[in-house]
């Protein structure tokens, strides 16, 4: 096991009717900014619950943080936050709203332009406190310090690290209104978060392996029931907690991590607006295929423990494990090939060019360069 440090300060408040608990967590007299996405919370009653819980607080609202939050939008929220002297931000929405809020929180305390913080994380020295009412299980943003911010002008999408939410409220009932496609993308995103932390090499930390495999198996178990009825409280609770546990550091202790699939997926989103979870469903099977020799032992372990693949030669079992993974995404109703989105050589060349220009070396072996990313994308055609 590798050395590691672990500290996750976010308080999780989970269950039915928990939105009312906001007022117990934010001190009276706080100047509060609420941040929202495009309006789903007005249709599903979440907005009303939040406003009811915040009676008596001095509140300013910022609306319009879009999926794959754009720095162009977030700059406006930062201006508002500075002007209004806010000292706490409550994000009410999905991962995009919360990710955007993480940059807003740091941007309010920064004199320069917010994009500088994304390009150079060491410039982040402080931020106002923030918390979330999470309405979309997927990113784990409710219990991690990461965010992914896009730039419309330059068509770039980069990870950014701020602070952890002070608390996050997860009421599975708010997920009933999520469109089916977004639920599928959220399950795929959660699955791939686990894979990024798991599918590296064997024999490092058997506890983390078992935990990760448990999360993957549970997602595979619950996905068909959710497809049938995504208003099933027990299933949506499992899904919601899985998304949080998939990316809050609990399965990352003392293990190497990959993240090449995510970084390639982010390029597809930046260039073509592909929804995050679907971008991963396209890239992961191809990453597994291209890196199958390097990841051989772990893919075999994954195949056997997660999918019960015990028969055939090593290469047959590896092929089967990759097929099972792609089939899982297809059962969710997601596309798994670039041609299905009319993406081809031109985009592959652009991603290769960008990676080479940035000197990118991704993955647990730092060997996923522009050339390897090209091979992965060609395999995903
Ligand atoms: O904007 P509104 O109107 O709220 O609608 C949203 C949006 O259209 C809707 N939605 C959310 N909750 C809903 C709902 N609709 C009905 N009922 C609800 N309860 O769903 C749409 C997608 O929302 P979004 O927030 O974009 O989805 P998600 O949570 O998947 O976030 C995606 C973003 O997170 C980043 C991705 O790159 C992407 O930018 N990620 C963040 C990570 C992190 N912070 O650690 C890690 C991830 O790997 C990921 O990269
Ligand atoms: Zn993700």
TrEMBL record:
Cellular component, GO annotation: cytosol
Keyword Oxidoreductase recorded: yes
Annotated GO MF terms: alcohol dehydrogenase (NADP+) activity; butanol dehydrogenase (NAD+) activity; metal ion binding; methylglyoxal reductase (NADPH) (acetol producing) activity
InterPro entries for this protein: ADH_Fe/GldA (IPR001670), ADH_Fe_C (IPR056798), BDH-like (IPR044731)
Record-annotated Fe-containing alcohol dehydrogenase-like C-terminal domain positions: 189-351
Domain Alcohol dehydrogenase iron-type/glycerol dehydrogenase GldA: 9-172
Keywords from the named record: Oxidoreductase
Gene3D superfamilies recorded: 3.40.50.1970, Dehydroquinate synthase-like - alpha domain
Domain of life (superkingdom): Bacteria
Keyword Chloroplast: no
Family under the similarity heading: Belongs to the iron-containing alcohol dehydrogenase family.
Protein name: Iron-containing alcohol dehydrogenase
